[in-house]
Queue: 4 jobs
Job 1
Amino acid sequence: MRLFIGLGICCLIAAVMQLSATGAEKEASKKVLRHVVMFGFKTTSSDEDVQTVVDAFRKLPSEIPEIAAFEFGTNNSPEGLNDGLTHCFLVSFDSEADRETYLPHPAHKAFVEVLKPHLEKVVVIDYWADK
């Protein structure tokens, strides 16, 4: 009888552990790592120069599979609090490991080389968000 009860308790513990692991996986899948990048460009950079930078950034999701989602836009806030930052890019990742692959990726490094001659100011912030 003790053996039977002991086996029952072991099975119950295993089932609870499985549910906990599944719950943790579900909880992790509810999060997304956001990489927010905001640029201000040099006054010497032409509209065409800025568009070249934007186009280069927009190509990254097709070159780096770890990018889960991508969007961008230009500032249109009426508040005047953008402090010279005009373009915002939102790059999303499923994990910190994916972001770690992205940052030194050759395509990202090539993009930075396109950006550098035109960059006046940059702000980058990363955060975990609920999906």
Note: Residues 30-130 form a domain with the Alpha-Beta Plaits fold (CATH 3.30.70.100).
Job 2
Amino acid sequence: MKSPFYIYVFFVFFGLSHSHAQKGSEILTKRPDSTEVVYYIIEGDTLARDIINLDEVILLDKLHFKTENDRRRYLILRRKTRKVYPYAKLAAERLTVMKERLNTIERNRDKKKYAKLVQKYVEGEFSDQLKNLTHSEGQILIKLIHRQTGHTAFDLIRELRTGWRAFWYNVTANMFEISLKEEYQPYEVKEDYLIEDILQRSFQEGILVRQKPSFPIDYLDLSSYWNKKIADN
């Protein structure tokens, strides 16, 4: 049975416009001279650099599973995580824009009108996809919303609408065994650690687009923690 509450969760995240602020981009060119020093030309200025800054790369260990069932469960979790992560990423991108827009609206009546427009937009663009989420996919989505925004879906709804409405939507979600108050806790919950592992591998493989979480996550430290915990057990 599919739950329609996912649609409402996204009412609080998406604005009507797809436009984003355009930032000026620097044009970089590099010239090697006879000493093999690389020069970068940045908007007409020449900077000599003997090193090149690269993005951080995490070397991931090869996955090992104790049983075939463990491997199968991981692959199922990977499929579900990759499916819902783009929604959580988009939610984080839209949240700031929506908050800024609501802050520019003074009258409550106009805010409600704006919310209805958002609802119509979301229903038209995302309802079919979100309605097709299973219960477990929906719960993973709620966790990833917390990872990307730093707030639970419940708190976001309460902040952007009303506490009473958030309460009832949490009750409704619980009827489908989903909690809008769920947090992403990779140090406390093994499934969340596996989700983080899936994300990191998917980022490096180019399957998912990396977006920084709202709070620091040291994957190497996290992985060491769980490897030790599993070994001790």
Note: DSSP finds eight helices and three strands in the chain.
Job 3
Amino acid sequence: MKTIDPRRITDNPIDIIGREWMLVTAGTDRRFNTMTASWGGAGYLWNKPVAAIFVRPERHTFGFIEQTGAFSLSFLGEEHKNVHKITGSKSGRDTDKIAEAGLHPVFTETGGILYEETRLGLECRVLYADTIEAGNFSDSSLAAQWYGPEKGGFHKMYIAEIIRAWTK
């Protein structure tokens, strides 16, 4: 993989996040976890290229993001949808889902964790984080639709600077 300026990414973030999905990975080379995500965004904020992700507190990856203040996003391509089925349905607390999914971790010199299978990777450093609250929805039906005892806790939103982008 080679690094590119994040401003040179040509992929449409709406398309690749919503259709291709992404792996959110956080931790260190000694201990880390990854999860599938299909909610997020990318753009420009505070004069920086940024990515926004949303993670429920009950997800194993949540604790790693909280500890390190960083995460990476890996886009594998639609041909790897089987990977997302494993990393999105199993917990890293209970199984080595990275090995089960056939992923091969790559550790960058800045502490990022990507995969050999990554076609586009983003190393991110958290700039801002906040938990979504029911009272802040202007359309309260969304809170009822996506949150509750049987659906899971409110997501925490992370806005992070894209410090490095990688392509094949």
Note: The chain has one domain: 2-167.
Job 4
Amino acid sequence: MSKIPATPPMLSGATVRLEPLQHTHCAALAEAVQDGQLWTVWCTTVPRPEQMQAEIDRRLALQDAGSMLPYTVINTADNRVVGMTSYMNIDRNVPRVEIGSTWYAASAQRTGLNTEAKTLLLTHAFETMGCSVVELRTHFLNQRSRKAIERLGAKLDGVLRSHMRMADGSLRDTCVYSIIATEWPAVKMHLQHGLRRV
């Protein structure tokens, strides 16, 4: 029987809190996405402020369908909403999840917040939900995202060529990374060491 829940639990760390996504987060998320005008980065898929309500509806519909557990990311230093992330493409039979559909306000990037958020998600996936593997994906040309995923300790499984259509009509080559359960203890130590240095 799968240990992956139907709704996401709250996950909290020293600098970040992952709250289950709610409609009441819409205004704060719309404000956060304007920090850096994140929707203009061509190799990512981030909603515009006026699209945030539709994006929340989309993610919550996927939650209802059992394929996503979406979160709002909050910086605990000032209790400010700084982004979104999720468990997605959930397969309860393996079980496996992908951590994705993630974006952060520009002021929250390169602060250690992403590392702690990913550590919380990975710890919960492996140690509570009993996942055999956790996957992370990004655009082949998104070097910043690829380096961030590799710093976590994930390994490149391969590249899905012409995998998906971007908003501008271009086809995306998708890099697929993963961490498997047997690798998790070493990856966890690596992440905890990195967080102590932040």
Note: The longest strand covers residues 80-91.
